[in-house]
Specification:
alpha/beta, Macro_dom-like, Macro domain-containing protein, Macro_dom, 2 domains, 6-stranded mixed beta sheet, Leucine Aminopeptidase, subunit E, domain 1
């Protein structure tokens, strides 16, 4: 008897060839293959979550080596302050506490040995250019395999995966808006921080979301980021140890050192 072969999708991430001979489906081997394929990233995820940051990357940057905003502002000459937008009211009674909850990190986000780093992803979550590509390359192929099971991500939303070979335990992927859309950008920060709390994680680092090829102007983007982080920390002060703004461009470094003086003021 001649066997006809056809393909059937077993999951979002894998296909299995099932052979049909007469009235019998020979599925055992195909299902074993499918389970093995599906389980690869899950096994890798569990393996790496059990490893400490130094075991994954010897030159990782630990939280203890990153100064808080209060410490940094006491140790360097800051640029002129950049005023908050008029409608951004803050609870001034928490200024001193919150100045110890944020940091600026001028370096490679993939070196941070913390709970979670945020990926400025595209809607497919399958990797791309800029920081998205850098994170995927550093994490290894299992990150893309897990991302392929998530069904993409709409603008402003966020989804979490393992960090795999990254020293960070998790990656929170968020899709920023193209062009200046303030509320959608704020949602990227808010939804990423909500996941941090839901997963009982305590440290997180953000790149500059939507700037660069997505066309969001750097200064308005920094206003949105600083305001949303400030409001979130006012409501969740005891649930977060550190929020890190990871900066690469000199323009962003100057902007954040100016803008944080207004959103996270310190008494000298």
């Amino acid at each position: 008897m001649i066997c006809a072969k056809f393909s059937e999708r077993i999951s979002k991430s894998t296909k299995s060839i099932i052979s049909f001979c007469g009235n019998k489906f020979h599925t055992e081997g195909a299902l074993i293959f499918a389970r093995k394929k599906m389980g690869n990233w899950e096994e890798e995820k569990e393996k790496y979550l059990k490893m400490n940051a130094e075991a994954k990357r010897k030159d990782c940057v630990k939280l203890q080596s990153i100064p808080t905003w209060k410490s940094l502002s006491d140790s360097i000459k800051l640029p002129e302050p950049i005023e908050m937008k008029e409608n951004c009211a803050i609870n001034i009674s928490k200024n001193e506490i919150l100045a110890e909850k944020i940091s600026i990190f001028e370096g490679d986000i993939t070196t941070l040995g913390i709970d979670a780093i945020v990926n400025a992803a595209n809607s497919t979550l399958m990797g791309g250019g800029g920081v998205d590509g850098v994170i995927h390359r550093a994490a290894g192929p299992s990150l893309k395999e897990e991302c392929s099971t998530l069904g993409g991500c709409p603008t402003g939303a966020a989804k979490i995966t393992g960090g795999y070979k990254l020293p960070a335990r998790y990656v929170i992927h968020t899709v920023g808006p193209q062009g200046e859309q303030t509320e959608k950008l704020k949602k990227c920060y808010r939804n990423s921080l909500d996941i941090l709390i839901e997963k009982k994680l305590r440290t997180i680092a953000f790149p500059c979301i939507s700037t660069g090829i997505y066309g969001y102007p750097n200064l308005p983007a920094a206003h949105a980021a600083a305001y949303q982080v400030r409001k979130f920390l006012e409501d969740n002060t005891d649930k977060v140890d550190r929020v890190i703004f990871c900066l690469f461009l000199d323009e962003d470094k100057k902007i954040y050192k100016g803008i944080l003086q207004s959103y996270f003021p310190i008494s000298h």
